[in-house]
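Office hours follow-up: a student asked to see two folded examples consecutively, so here they are.
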Amino acid sequence: MVATQTKTVQFNQGLSSGATRFVYEEGDEGWRPTFTELPLISFKNINGTLEERQALAKEVGAAFRDVGFLYAKDCPGITPELVKDTFDAILEFYEQPVEEKLKLSWDNSPAVVGYEGFKEARNIVDTTADIRESFIICDDMLDSEQNYPGTPPPGTLPLNQWPEKFPKIRTQLYKYWNQTFPLARSLLSIVLMALEIDEKEFEEAFKWPMWSMRCQHYLPRPVDEDTCATPPHDDYSIFTILNQQPGSDPCLEVLNLNGKWISAPALPEADFVINCGNYLERISNGRFVSTIHRVMNHTGRRRCSLPLFFSPNPDTVIGPHPSLVGPEGSKYDKMDVGLNYAARMFQSRRLHPSSVWLRENKVPAEEMYYKYIRYGVPKDESKEETK
């Protein structure tokens, strides 16, 4: 007799919450062949000859098609010293007095970057426990280290916040970014090659791409606790390049097609875990998958991680590439990237002043334009013309 499934896994997907997936055991009706581990791929030839890059594109394409995740090793510029120095600086930042960290509260930034304290994280995770704190930076035309190619538009606000009493964090994060951001650009070329798309078609879409880095600090929790440090979700990005603190305990878990959580621990030989995001799934018309994942820090020890989220320019409209649309048609509508990013950001950060203003003025999700991130919300009490 074939078993009937009633057990489900719940997760957030896109702008929706409460999506579900049945949990299947082998032999159950509905069980499907699916991944039970993440592939490990060498990136040593990511900037190599055409033949070498094509071979890498084939591997990356297969991983994003079948799993949505991969381990990357041999990444150019990523040395053990760089990674150690970066996590050392992150941990030193979190040892700073609470009042110093709170001076950098993300409430001060229209882009919701800076310091995310325990209170804000509790609201997102929906728990009463102190689970995590984060320090976030993003693309900022006014940060000199990013070398914005031109003059920022009038009214552009500074987005990133940096501690005056601990300048080391800024210096070290930009040392790290100077190696990972070029890697992201190179990976974009590989991904487009895997989809047989001419990368020149996307040159304009990635002239000043959106990106963010989250220095995440998860506090130790009881081993028998079942609270998620980061609830199940997918990423609104082209892809995410995650550095798990070397030697840290297994915490990241990836959901396969049968509703099983697959552990993705930090591997000694891997530089990163990389996953496909929603925007890339849309461009690929579903050939690549943005896989649900979560963080479960029930090890009894603290943990740090450092993801880089990489996305197109905020004024980009994406949809399934015409070459990937068959007789069945497009699986996805076109999407305004900046609008989607802003809507997801403000809906998940409900305590941020901009999010509060948008709700009070009844601005619907389809009108949460990216300008509210770049320029902030209006200062007066009335809802202004939005576009």
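And the second, which I mentioned at the end of office hours:
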Amino acid sequence: MEVGFLGLGIMGKAMAANLLRHGFRVTVWNRTLSKCEELVAMGATVGETPAAVVAKCKYTIAMLSDPSAALSVVFDKDGVLEQIGEGKGYVDMSTVDDATSCKISEAVKQKGGAFVEAPVSGSKKPAEDGQLVILAAGDKALYDDMVPAFDVLGKRSFFLGEIGNGAKMKLVVNMIMGSMMNAFSEGLCLADKSGLSPQTLLDVLDLGAVANPMFKMKGPSMLQGSYNPAFPLKHQQKDMRLALSLGDENAVAMPVAAAANEAFKKARSLGLADLDFSAVHEVLKGAGGSA
């Protein structure tokens, strides 16, 4: 199976590499073309523009940083729309709002192409291990065609119906994750400030009802002040903002998420945007602890 792949950031690079390792023929594009070199060494070919990739491949996947990037790759000069058409499918796995997905979907369908949104739950390590959770919606026939690729990229894929549902589900998931990270950080700081061992707190949490992979994975590095980016904080804050906007649209009060968003915004103002989202811990340490 041949696929195009647009966007080789932390997630996209790992996902495209997985496809190559599993025998897919992959044509890649990235705004900074030098990021393609490692994948070329693995057997990928390079398309000079998104349009060139779509022209070559029946199916094209995009994994981009935010709504602005997702729209740019589709609508700008040499973008997806210049070559999408009958018999071609476009799969956007970026995390965007539902309005962005709907806009892209309408444009692709007007050109005769098929569209699926398929944001993922998971960060760098699950992407490398093919253990993402794929939240797809849109054209069911294209989704079915993409299942072999989704089975390589993820441990499970969900088809959620009409366009927008995948985007909404991903924002809800990431809103919960960001809120949990803030509560976790507050707990680590409170334990430390109260004279308790934060490491012992991690051990206790891991044995109780609130045990979860995020605490287990992130906790030790947070205590060391190490925040190598698996999921950059700037993207987490973007997702909090989009989730809060979704809450506004649906008249859902979200005071916990709103407070968490403020902490991520503060972290961005302190220059932590490109670190892992767990670096919000530094904000909470400064506010009341020194874990």
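Two things to take away from it. The two ends are 49 Å apart (CA to CA). The longest helix spans residues 165-193.
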